[in-house]
Amino acid sequence: xxxxxxxxxxxxxxxxxxxxxxxxxxxxxxxxxxxxxxxxxxxxxxxxxxxxxxxxxxxxxxxxxxxxxxxxxxxxxxxxxxxxxxxxxxxxxxxxxxxxxxxxxxxxxxxxxxxxxxxxxxxxxxxxxxxxxxxxxxxxxxxxxxxxxxxxxxxxxxxxxxxxxxxxxxxxxxxxxxxxxxxxxxxxxxxxxxxxxxxxxxxxxxxxxxxxxxxxxxxxxxxxxxxxxxxxxxxxxxxxxxxxxxxxxxxxxxxxxxxxxxxxxxxxxxxxxxxxxxxxxxxxxxxxxxxxxxxxxxxxxxxxxxxxxxxxxxxxxx
Length: 318
Prior knowledge:
Elements: H1 4-11, E1 18-19, E2 22-23, H2 26-39, H3 52-65, H4 75-80, E3 85-86, E4 89-90, E5 92-96, H5 109-115, E6 116-121, H6 123-129, H7 132-146, H8 151-160, H9 164-172, H10 188-205, E7 227-230, H11 234-237, E8 245-248, H12 250-257, E9 261-263, E10 269-271, H13 305-314
């Protein structure tokens, strides 16, 4: 049985870079984020992918814990945690994509996800942290060591499900309590998190079903093959709420983006006269013309009629 004191000592004696605002808080925020995701069952196989969930929860925890003017850069601790050791051995490693190498800190999240597959703890540390009681002990010690003034407040917000990531999810879902909030986009990581949530939540509110064809295709691995499509491009609208989205299968998504399909004010399907296809084919688009699209269960998630009008005016080629 491994001595637990060595894990506790290492995690509460992190090497943190000096900054003009004090010692960098990035590593303890990342560790708390990894523990939180383990608690939710996110990393049962010791694989922490740099995805929307991981980056979003890191950003939330940063806002709840850090008072200084340090920049909340997720890529920094995700790479530099590799320098930390227990008994002279590193306990965090990045596993690169096939054919790639991670030889230096990658500052761009979009570049990072193209090079890094996932991060992982050493087997010994992951086994230690897989015990719920030990994980809770580590979480408490991390907060008391690095963010003592925020301990009570942090726990309260987490218990109530309050914070940046939760607020952002409610905003994208167009939940009533979030409609008056203006959540600004300031960094590449924030764009990444919002984009990832849009791609996940739009198919979710449509029950992983194409709103026009009714196709529903997924896998036991959790994959979905239905796209989240912006009605008005994000580059134009900066609107990533589900009311600016449609769940569409890939071929219909492409047709919608190219103006060959539109949606009327009554949510009926409109087809362009420029479509060329075999209308007798079982998967032809012609058979959907005039049909009412499938709509989410809750009206708050229905497509915004004004945005559908913009698409018909600016994109649709009737």
